[in-house]
Specification:
Blueprint lengths: L3 E4 L4 E4 L9 E4 L4 E6 L6 E3 L6 E3 L14 E6 L2 E3 L12 E6 L3 E8 L2 E8 L6 E10 L5 E14 L1 H4 L3 H4 L5 E4 L2 E4 L9 E7 L5 E5 H5 L9 H5 L12 E11 L4 E12 L6 E3 L2 E2 L2 H8 L4 H19 L2 E4 L3 H21 L14 E2 H11 L4 H12 L11 E2 L17 H16 L8 E4 L2 E7 H13 L44 E2 H20 L3 H21 L9 E2 L5 E2 L9 E2 H9 L8 H12 L1 E2 L2 E2 L2 E2 L25 E2 L3 H10 L3 H11 L8 H4 L7 E4 L10 E4 L4 H13 L2 E4 L2 E4 L9 E8 L2 E8 L8 E6 L2 E2 L4 E2 L7 E8 L1
């Protein structure tokens, strides 16, 4: 069942009912100011850090779920409703939501009045703009009232939800003209405030939630809206809000627009005040003046559209498959950019309170967006590296506001350091910019202890070789990529963190996955060493990589597939010897991606075992059989019911590793078959089963052992976005940045006749025609650049900034 449709021309997903299976959301903002908005106008807004600089409140676990947002109520002679249906839920004569790239447009119509709510964050501004267009679609003159509503968060979202004895006494606002200023705690240690404005004269306002909503009402029936009159309340403690009341008279066919701006201002310490306890409003008024007219809003929307057109133009495909085109050209790279901005910090599944930016997460996210905006990738790499410790280990997370490591989670996730090599190599391959390696970067954010980025990479590599277990495999630490495989925790206490609790010191549990990752990223490190003239260091690295490859084949293969790990007692995990959890997806993907066992035959056996043991119609499950009881030596993975999350769920993040692994063996049909199983555009027709947005990936789909097989959870912010983009664009379609240039090596379904890729690379634009006259899956028979034959399959950068024609014939 479908609940909407793709509009590829406008790069939008059009939702035609407010009653989607779950709130289907979009993200506003590209730089420092962000908003989440659902198809019924729910969501929240923040500046840089969803925990530390939250502007508006949102209550997770609410009933109904998506209650709280930037709402606009229309009062029409005793009848009141909202254009997004929620929270009033009054029947609408017409409803439509259009989620676009960085904006959302919601239209509702009832009783001859149409209201369109357009929301976006303008480039270069720390503000969210909402334009409301109210139109009289009837035949008689109408006078109606429009009420805005936003509930302010008291900045620190965690404290806001917990410290009521203080917070219910601190709320402060100012109201002047048509602007409401939220200034809680501004008198003391804060230099920032929020404002909420409208570009018309108001008939009234409210800033106290109880006065507006009523003590015994909900947002579905605020008493001020039901009465059709604002109370002009001024918040003093309790819960501050922003609500404007506007009276509108419309002739038949007439429409009027109203521009609301919800923004964030920081003032220098010596410019905080106009007078005693009166905030300096000049910066806020300057922002408001830039969005006072429809022409200004239209101009800002045009800038936003041009920004996205530029980003998406870096890689475009023309094929005969509309679903493939829209995923590669629009929605997958869009999700990659959103995930880069957010990491895993703020969605409808991540509250923005419990975690910051992930070290491994952000490095993997780089892989999906580095071609779009490499200058921001460069900045992100240096930010990430600065949270590394001198021994090469790293904080697992850091806070985006401070860019310092998150002490609550700490370090000890032993795959983290290797991802820094992967992210940095991807940046250098894309840009050719080796100068990043000479940047001085702190350890543990300490400016008094710095080293070059290359030294950070060296310590990342050596962190693995300095932390090997009894079999010569890497020690797992608190966890490797799978944070729920906790081989050193041994937790029996409710509420104990599986990731940060280590009840047995000196753990010797080993990870076959980290071994595969080491062999996968190690050659990039060795090449970087060679580029710096460090041939001896490179040779030593290659020797250690080769040794790890042999150890993995000797101690990490179980006859038909790769083991997952060895536990604290030296027992195998992911083995035929186990009663449950006999085979895991992660090492099969990563080890084959690394080329381990390809020549010897183990790789082919491993992928056959994946297809036979782990495959389902909705994707590949993480392991089989699922765990039916709690295993003290395994930790969180065995706490989930069978088929969910890491306990045999379809963890979409690692499905593309199997896609890429299949291309290593030349299996183009199989690789694309797996791709289609989890790519959202291909799941649109089963949205009632899948439930999540049909335009972006989810982290998890319930596995074959679950009650609701095929149902997704945790959409938007997942490494699934970057890895699926890498799998389809680089491994299947086969256009991949390399140190020497642009590598062309497709691995596609044999029935394909061909396709065309436009790829911007180091300032040049390459229009690449892939032709498959012999209907093979893999192998480049010939390659020409502007009519001249090229030896091999790497296009060296031309460097003239022009458009170049490339013809590739497979065979």
């Amino acid at each position: 069942m479908k609940f909407g449709t793709f509009d590829d021309t406008r790069k939008e997903y059009v939702i035609n009912t407010p009653k989607t299976p779950y709130p289907w959301i979009n993200y506003l903002g590209n730089e420092q100011f962000f908003g989440l908005i659902s198809n019924t106008a729910g969501g929240y807004t923040f500046y840089r850090d969803a925990r530390m600089r939250r502007l508006t409140r949102y209550r997770y676990n609410n009933i109904p779920l998506d209650t709280g947002g930037r709402y606009y109520y229309l009062y029409d002679d005793g009848d009141f409703w909202t254009p997004g249906w929620m929270p009033v839920k009054r029947d609408l004569d017409f409803y439509e939501c259009r989620h676009g790239l960085g904006y959302t447009s919601i239209t509702g119509e009832r009783n001859g009045i149409s209201v369109n709510q357009l929301a976006f964050v303008p480039m270069g501004h720390n503000a969210e703009v909402h334009r409301l267009v109210v139109k009289n679609t009837g035949s008689a003159k109408k006078t109606v009232k429009l009420f805005s509503f936003a509930e302010f968060c008291l900045w620190n979202a965690n404290d806001d939800m917990t410290n009521f004895q203080r917070n219910l006494s601190t709320g402060e606002v100012e109201v002047k003209d048509s602007v409401i200023y939220h200034k809680t705690e501004y008198r003391e240690r804060r230099n920032h405030y929020a404002f909420y404005s409208v570009n018309k004269e108001i008939a009234g306002f409210d800033t106290d939630r109880e006065s507006f909503v009523g003590m015994y009402n909900g947002l579905d029936a605020p008493q001020a809206v039901a009465a059709g009159e604002a109370t002009n309340s001024v918040a003093s403690g309790w819960s501050p809000i922003g609500s404007h009341a506007l009276e509108i008279t419309l002739e038949p066919g007439e429409e009027q627009s109203f521009i609301f701006v919800l923004g964030y201002i920081e003032n220098p310490e010596d410019e905080k005040w106009e007078s005693l306890n009166v905030i300096n409003k000049k910066p806020a008024l300057a922002v408001i003046e830039q969005f006072a007219t429809d022409a200004q809003v239209d101009a800002a929307l045009a800038v936003l559209a041009a920004h996205w057109d530029n980003l998406l133009s870096k890689y475009q495909i023309q094929s005969g498959d509309d679903k493939l085109n829209r995923m590669v050209n629009i929605w997958n790279p869009y999700q990659c950019m959103v995930t880069f901005n957010m990491s895993r910090s703020a969605s409808y599944f991540e509250s923005g309170i419990g975690r910051g930016m992930g070290f491994r997460d952000s490095n993997q996210d780089l892989l999906g967006f580095v071609h779009q905006i490499p200058e921001r990738a460069r900045e992100r790499i240096l930010d990430i590296a600065a949270t590394q410790f001198p021994d090469g280990s790293a904080y697992h997370q850091y806070q985006p506001l401070t860019k310092k490591g998150n002490n609550e989670v700490g370090s000890g996730f032993n795959d983290d350091p290797l991802w820094l090599i992967s992210g940095t190599a991807a940046y250098i391959k894309e840009t050719g910019d080796y100068s990043i390696l000479d940047e001085q970067v702190p350890f543990d954010s300490d400016p008094n202890n710095t080293a070059t980025l290359f030294e950070h990479l060296k310590r990342s590599f050596e962190h693995v070789t300095n932390n090997l277990g009894p079999h010569g495999l890497p020690l797992i630490g608190r966890a490797d990529w799978n944070d729920c495989l906790n081989l050193n925790c041994f937790s029996t206490e409710p509420g104990e963190s599986f990731q940060t609790t280590e009840n047995i010191a000196g753990g010797v549990a080993e990870s076959v996955f980290i071994a595969g990752l080491f062999v996968f990223v190690g050659p990039d490190y060795a090449e970087i060493c060679r580029m710096r003239g460090l041939d001896d260091v490179a040779a030593d690295a290659v020797a250690k990589i080769d040794n790890m490859r042999e150890i993995t084949l000797t101690h990490g293969f179980d006859g038909d597939w790769f083991l997952r790990a060895y536990d604290h007692y030296g027992d195998k995990i992911g083995s035929k010897e186990n009663e449950e959890g006999q085979i895991f997806i992660e090492p099969q993907g990563m080890c084959v991606m690394a080329g381990i066992g390809v020549e010897e035959g183990q790789a082919a056996k491993a992928l056959t075992s994946v297809q036979e043991r782990l495959d389902t119609e909705y994707g590949i499950v993480l392991q089989q059989p699922p765990y039916s009881k709690y295993y003290l030596n395994l930790g969180e993975i065995s706490t989930y019911p069978p088929g969910y999350k890491e306990n045999a769920g379809i963890f979409c993040h690692n499905n593309p590793w199997i896609m890429i692994a299949e291309t290593v063996l030349g299996h183009g049909d199989r690789a694309f078959e797996i791709y289609k199983k989890i790519a959202p555009a291909y799941l649109e027709d089963i949205s009632e089963v899948h439930r999540m947005e049909p335009y972006v990936y989810s982290q998890m789909i319930a596995g074959k052992d679950a009650v609701r097989h095929g149902e997704a959870k945790n959409s938007w912010l997942t490494g699934t976005a970057a890895w699926n983009y890498v799998a389809i664009t680089q491994s299947i379609l086969g256009i991949q940045a390399d140190f020497a240039g642009l590598k062309v090596d497709p691995c596609i379904p044999a029935e394909w006749d061909g396709f065309e890729i436009t790829r911007v690379f180091r300032g040049d634009t390459y229009v690449i025609s892939i032709q498959n006259p012999n209907h093979v899956s893999k192998g480049v028979a010939s390659l020409t650049l502007d009519g001249t034959a090229v030896e091999g399959n790497i296009i060296a950068p031309v460097g003239d900034g022009a458009v170049h024609q490339v013809v590739v014939v497979l065979g």
